[in-house]
Design a protein that fits this description.
Blueprint lengths: L21 H14 L2 E4 L7 E4 L2 H9 L4 E2 L9 H12 L14 H10 L4 H25 L2 E3 H6 L1 H11 L6 H12 L12 H24 L5 H6 L2 E2 L2 E2 L2 H32 L1 H9 L4 H12 L4 E6 L3 E3 L2 E3 L4 E5 H4 L34 H18 E6 L4 E2 L8 E3 L1 E6 L1
Parallel strand pairs: 2-10
Antiparallel strand pairs: 1-2, 3-7, 4-14, 5-6, 7-10, 8-9, 11-14, 12-13
């Protein structure tokens, strides 16, 4: 096997603060794509891994889900957090969501909620989503002429949609959002509950405590919502395990709104920073579909997933040993010069747009259609009603190696 090549630029991938600094992150990723697209990263407190920064390599690894599997390291976390998570799972606790699983178990668990996100379900939901989009734009107008778009709108709209789909009471929405911030914001000073794995595990236990009560209620009396489908889900004729059941709720409730929040806020920021593209979209609303895809590419809420090689192999001529971890840098893949014409240009009409923001292959995002529909509804309402919009302060990105985006976007606007 070849000796791993060290490249200081790749260390940013194992530095949560780098994701709060677009210029720093993209400078490093541009260098890696050109000079070291399969880069060895050894940056404690994280265990070493190979950083995969080219779109084609990311896609190839995603496609080969037998050679590259999710377990035991589906995402980047510290060695201490990895060890603690494994110990918890060995003890029958911890988190094991769809992103942690491999086929055939992954496919069976995924099927429990998949009908809720199919095209027919989205068509049935669209009227309600359009109504909610109008409600939140009305609220935005009424609170004007300034707001923090992230906390006042981008969080609230998708949170309401996914909580309604689950069938949770509205008074619990705020609690779900707070726990989501603490879980995905474990590296961010504004959001994290603590610094140790035990303190961060407490967030998960709060989630589990809530959903354990919900499961008992939905098993006793199903109510025809997504929470009831999860509570009564069966694998090979047997009830889903408690770990898998609790974890299913967590991934739907948390990722089901937080990633969309990041794409919505990142999309609005891009429109403000590119007024020509905003004018183009206002003049031609038929571009909304491609505009939404471009917002998703531009913001890339899920920064990475990781896979582990099940056998010795090579990627772009670099030897990858059995048991080695590879880091799929979606942020880099979505700015790959070989795939995207002028990738650092925000283009509401970009077509084709082969972004990897939703992943690819068997782990393609379960809620992708819902996220697209929510964004289409909200921006259709927004673009048709604003007379002016500009920044009213400095946008702030969250520090994270996994899921994140803007945490504050102060804007000044006029809405009809």
């Amino acid at each position: 096997m070849s000796t791993p090549t060290m490249d200081d630029a790749a260390k940013v991938l194992a530095d949560p603060t780098a994701y709060a600094d677009d210029a720093r992150l993209h400078t490093a990723l541009t260098h890696l794509r050109a000079n070291n697209p399969v880069a060895w990263v050894d940056n404690p407190p994280y265990r070493p891994f190979w950083a995969i920064t080219k779109h084609a390599d990311i896609m190839a690894i995603e496609r080969d889900n037998e050679l590259f599997i999710s377990e035991p390291r589906p995402l980047l976390s510290t060695a201490a957090a990895d060890d603690y998570a494994k110990a918890q799972l060995d003890a029958g606790m911890g988190l094991r969501t769809l992103i942690h699983m491999d086929d055939p178990h992954h496919r069976k668990v995924r099927a429990i909620g998949s009908d809720w996100f199919r095209p027919k379900a989205m068509r049935d939901l669209k009227v309600r989503v359009d109504e909610l989009a109008k409600r939140y734009v009305d609220q935005m107008r009424d609170m004007g002429p300034e707001c923090d778009f992230v906390t006042d709108v981008a969080v609230q709209f998708p949170l309401y949609v996914i909580m309604s789909l689950l069938g949770l009471p509205e008074e619990d929405y705020g609690r779900m959002h707070m726990l989501t911030q603490e879980m995905f914001g474990g590296d961010d000073d504004e959001y994290k509950r603590g610094t140790t794995p035990e303190e961060q595990m407490a967030v998960l236990l709060d989630f589990f405590g809530y959903f354990a009560q919900l499961t008992a209620a939905r098993r006793e009396k199903p109510t025809g919502d997504l929470a009831s489908a999860i509570a009564n889900g069966r694998i090979d004729g047997e009830p889903m395990s408690e770990v898998d059941t609790m974890s299913y709720y967590v991934i739907v409730a948390a990722a089901g709104h937080d990633t969309t929040k990041d794409a919505i806020s990142g999309g609005l920021h891009a429109l403000i920073e590119n007024p020509g593209e905003l004018d183009r979209l206002r003049a031609d609303p038929s571009l909304m579909g491609t505009a939404v895809e471009e917002m998703i590419r531009w913001s890339t809420p899920v920064k990475e997933f990781m896979r582990t090689a099940t056998a010795d192999t090579t990627v772009r001529g670099v030897d990858i040993a059995k048991g080695d971890s590879v880091y799929l840098a979606y942020v880099s893949g979505n700015r790959d010069e070989e795939i995207f014409d002028d990738p650092f240009r925000f283009d509401v009409g970009r077509d084709p747009n082969k972004h990897v923001a939703f992943g690819y292959g068997v782990h393609f995002c379960l809620g992708a259609a819902l996220a697209r529909m929510e964004m289409n509804s909200l921006f259709t309402e927004l673009v048709s009603r604003w007379d002016s919009i500009e920044l009213a302060g400095t946008p702030e990105l969250s520090a994270t190696t996994f899921v994140g985006g803007l945490k504050h976007l102060p804007i000044r606007y006029s809405l009809r």
